[in-house]
Design goal:
The complex is a heterotrimer. Chain B is of the alpha/beta class. Chain B contains 13 helices and eight strands. Chain C is of the alpha/beta class. The termini of chain C are far apart. Chains B and C meet through helix 1, helix 2, helix 3, helix 4 and helix 8 of B and helix 1, helix 15, helix 17, helix 18 and helix 19 of C.
């Protein structure tokens, strides 16, 4: 009922208005010069570090596994949620900690030490991780624990927002997946006197391990 | 070059010396200045207060007074912007709309006219002291005039320009706003003046007599001896 | 809509005068405002320094908005089709009463004991919290600033930072009184405490309510943008997610998000991108998936079709609620958000509030500006706010002609003078001595000055200018006979 009333009010409001031309397809503000994998990797790192993300570049999957083990031991993380992505499974294969599938136990997830996910893409322009809900159960594992570690393959880093959006548009059988999440740095707030505090609702720390054979 | 001077009502009534300085400047620049004494006010007060009919009436009169082809020079960015925007007051079918459209390109703010049209050299003028420039809102945002007055001041012997970081912030005048919401208006002036007083300059200079009236009036109330001067007074040969 | 129930909840915009004068006396508030507006201004400028195509971006963003508004029925219909196909339930409400009733009914159907909310100007506009409280439901605001405001029983004073007016000390005191926190906690400890308390609400909530930054007609999707993660929690943990949006939030294409993701964070907070964007396209598809079982989008008119119908002011609907105009407005910087008596303060509030609620409900707001134009310069979609303010001032004098009879009479007389050289000459000749006299420092002068309202208003904080003995025209005529 209200739908019909609102729609007809809109039509009435526009009865003397002719349709405007679609906006130009040329989109301004796109990043320049991120043509090579190495350039994209370094730009991604610079941007993410500028918003308090911690970025590690490693040579291969085994090096990622070793670095993860070292971080877990050093930080004393015991209870660790994982997303189930193959990259995560490999990287956590010899961790001395309790691992669990984050999407299966939200109460444990809310009290665990760390969440580990992979990503589907990353954006050099903004230092952003891009995750699709149909590809990986990232929704809560990247959000509830106090620390989020993401594993990124260098080849997943695209130049700009437009590239990532285009990939997301048809990612789930030609449609967007139910949820596309962009993550750029840890959870933050400036709501009290503009004092920047991280970890208000989501992770206090975002650590990204980039498997980057081409940059080293 | 023949030019027509629109001196503005505030200069006419409150600061005729600014009008004299403008006249002298234009003549020194080689212009033959025509001043039509039938001119009154640009009509901006009524326009900004929402009295459209009154604004139209005054605009028609001003267009009559300024008829011709000569460039019109205005020692106020705000009034110049009002003259340039007369077309907004009339429906597109109204003959006065066409007159307003024809008027707009003839209108020039003083500093922009001197620099852009006359390539004026102000090195003949001299001024002892430090000064800061106030970018009047309409001069800056409606007319896009920012570099010209600075260029001219840079040529004046002895004048030392000290830029205020908030040089583009409104002085708080805003026409009838200054009278309808006087407390806010004064608080806005104070924000600028606190900064300018801290700069330690001798004078605030602008090209809008209304801003100068606001800032100058507040300076006197605050017991400051910083002077609020019009650009023409500094440049006058 | 009746006068008793304007389209904006808790509207007190007609009190702008007294409210702004109170704000001017509030020194801590003005310190907080100066700090916040200067900080945001600086961050925005720094972010723009790294974006050479800014003007082209603004033009592009505006072109998309104009295109959308001009074919709104088409895009809305497409959005409904696409969203429905993806399992999202789309609903409409004509006004805030209907919207609040619909959400209340939904919460009752779900037997929701806990409702969590992420930041949404639309829910502020419709007064959702109070409407739900009247039905015994207590929605929990989860954006830190909004939660602080809710605990304090206040309203937001800024579109982006709702608690901009509160100092760290006052928040610490509030947490001490309301939550039994230790006294005088710092911002980090206060934030931690909020995290712990709100976590419980998130995990218990049956219903999550969010706003919408952009909705996509092409795919039936919508995007929510934030920094804290509370919107992600609000839309991920509860069984049911309701997103509320005005009819103007639509964009035609998925690819249009690119331009707005470059425009909005830079304008609002000076960030290249906020910490999180979530783009939703329907509820979960399989029982084992994460995310809500049910997803609803509630689309509101609440006065917007009237704005759309007015070609002069239609561009108001292009607003993306970035708050940049607040941060550069010299009036807002002095009086703060609460003075405007509307959930939409500052320059955008001054034009939006009277349009949504009616000119008679917000008469002072179009006048609460010096027309300096700083807002127009920063607007990411190039809304010509000063032009609309002028239009609204004309509307006020047209629709409420006797609101200020002396002013009207004054302008009538003035216009007759200013269009007759003879009257002007005589009039100014006669007035000048009075103004000169009023500007004097003796008692008689000051008494006289107080009797003439414009002179009294001017001389409250400013010395009256002294008219010259001879006007420019007199001098000119005497020197050039």
């Amino acid at each position: 009922m209200s739908r019909a009333i609102v729609m007809s009010a809109i039509r009435r409001a526009l009865r003397r208005t002719s349709a405007k031309e679609p906006a130009p397809t040329e989109i301004p503000g796109r990043p320049q010069g991120l043509d090579s994998t190495v350039e994209r990797t370094l730009a991604f790192r610079t941007r993410l570090e500028s918003v308090d993300g911690e970025v590690h570049l490693v040579r291969d999957q085994d090096a990622a596994r070793d670095l993860l083990m070292e971080l877990v031991e050093r930080r004393g993380w015991k209870d660790i949620a994982v997303s189930g992505a193959p990259l995560v499974t490999h990287a956590t294969s010899n961790l001395k900690a309790d691992l669990f599938e984050g999407s299966q136990d939200r109460d444990r997830l809310a009290h665990c030490d760390l969440g580990i996910t992979a990503v589907q893409h990353a954006i050099a322009e903004t230092g952003t991780l891009v995750l699709f809900s149909h590809a990986e159960s990232h929704r809560l594992t990247s959000l509830l624990p106090p620390v989020h570690i993401a594993l990124v393959e260098q080849s997943q880093i695209v130049a700009g927002l437009g590239d990532a959006l285009a990939l997301a548009h048809g990612a789930d059988g030609g449609e967007p997946p139910p949820l596309v999440t962009f993550i750029t740095g840890p959870s933050r707030t400036g709501d009290i006197e503009l004092t920047m505090v991280t970890g208000v609702h989501g992770p206090r720390e975002l650590i990204v391990i980039v498997i980057a054979p081409d940059s080293l | 070059m023949q030019v027509s001077l629109f001196v503005t009502c505030l200069v006419d009534q409150l600061r005729p010396e600014v009008g004299q300085a403008t006249l002298a400047l234009l003549e020194h620049a080689g212009c033959t200045v025509n001043f039509n004494p039938s001119q009154t006010c640009c009509g901006q007060p009524a326009c900004n207060a929402g009295y459209e009919g009154e604004a139209q009436q005054v605009a028609r009169h001003t267009m009559d007074v300024l008829a011709g082809d000569d460039p019109i020079v205005v020692p106020s960015g705000s009034c110049a912007a009002q003259l340039k925007h007369y077309a907004d007051l009339f429906d597109a079918e109204d003959p006065d709309h066409a007159r307003a459209v024809a008027l707009a390109p003839r209108v020039h703010e003083l500093s922009a006219f001197l620099v852009d049209q006359m390539n004026y050299d102000a090195s003949g003028a001299s001024f002892e002291g430090t000064l800061t420039w106030h970018d009047a809102c309409h001069t800056l945002r409606e007319l896009g005039v920012k570099d010209q007055p600075r260029h001219l001041l840079g040529q004046v012997a002895g004048a030392q320009l000290v830029e205020a970081p908030e040089c583009e912030t409104c002085c708080g005048f805003g026409g009838t706003f200054a009278i309808k919401m006087p407390e806010i208006s004064v608080a806005m002036s104070d924000r600028k003046l606190d900064e300018i007083i801290a700069l330690g300059v001798d004078s605030i200079v602008s090209t809008d007599i209304s801003c100068l009236m606001q800032l100058g009036g507040r300076l006197i109330s605050r017991g400051s001896n910083i002077r609020a001067l019009h650009l023409a007074e500094i440049l006058a040969p | 809509m009746s006068k008793k129930d304007p389209a904006i909840a808790e509207l007190t915009a007609n009190d702008f005068g007294p409210a702004s004068r109170r704000a001017l006396q509030d020194a801590p508030l003005r310190r907080a405002l100066a700090k916040a507006t200067n900080t945001f201004k600086g961050r925005r400028e720094a972010a723009l320094d790294e974006m050479p195509d800014w003007e082209a971006l603004r033009t592009h963003g505006r072109a998309i908005k104009d295109e959308t508004l001009s074919r709104l029925p088409h895009h809305l219909t497409r959005f409904i089709e696409q969203a429905t196909a993806k399992g999202t339930q789309v609903h409409f409400a004509q006004d805030r009463a209907e919207a609040c009733a619909w959400i209340g009914d939904l919460a009752e159907r779900l037997e929701a004991k806990t409702v969590v909310k992420s930041k949404s100007m639309m829910t502020e506009e419709i007064g959702l919290n109070h409407a739900l409280e009247a039905r015994g439901l207590y929605p929990v605001e989860t954006d830190l600033g909004e939660w602080i405001i809710q605990l304090a029983g206040e309203t937001p004073s800024h579109i982006i930072v709702p608690a901009i007016h509160k100092s760290r000390e006052s928040v610490a005191k509030l947490f001490e009184e309301r939550l039994g926190a230790e006294p005088d906690l710092d911002a980090v400890r206060l934030t931690q405490l909020a995290r712990e308390i709100l976590r419980t609400s998130f995990l218990e909530a049956e219903l999550g309510i969010s706003g919408v930054n952009f909705a996509i007609a092409e795919t039936g999707s919508f995007l929510v943008l934030e920094n804290e993660g509370n919107a992600r929690l609000t839309t991920s943990l509860p069984r049911v997610h309701v997103a509320i949006m005005g009819i103007e939030k639509l964009l035609p294409r998925w690819s249009d998000l690119e331009t707005f993701l470059r425009l909005l964070p830079r304008s609002g907070t000076g960030q290249h991108l906020t910490s999180y964007q979530s783009i939703f396209t329907g509820p979960k598809r399989n029982p084992g998936d994460e995310g809500p079982d049910e997803m609803h989008v509630l689309i509101l008119d609440n006065g917007r079709t009237d704005i759309l119908a007015d070609e002069v002011t239609r561009e108001t609907l292009a607003c993306i609620r970035c708050g940049a105009c607040l941060n550069v407005c010299p009036v807002y910087a002095q009086v703060g958000g609460h003075s405007y008596g509307s959930v939409y303060p500052g320059p955008i509030g001054a034009i939006l509030t009277p349009q949504l609620a009616g000119a008679d409900q917000a008469t002072p707001l179009p006048g609460a500006s010096s027309l300096c134009g700083a807002c127009r310069d920063v607007c990411p979609v190039k809304i010509d706010i000063p032009r609309i303010l002028l239009h609204q001032r004309r509307e006020v004098t047209r629709k409420l002609p006797w609101r200020a009879p002396f002013e009207r009479l004054g302008f009538w007389v003035w216009a007759r003078m200013a269009s007759s050289p003879r009257l002007w000459r005589i009039g100014t000749y006669l007035i000048r001595p009075f103004v000169r006299f009023a500007g004097g420092s003796n008692l008689l002068s000051r008494g006289f000055c107080r009797l003439i309202p414009p002179l009294a208003a001017w001389s409250g904080g400013r010395s009256l200018p002294t008219p010259a003995k001879k006007s420019f025209r007199q001098q000119y005529e005497e020197s050039r006979p």
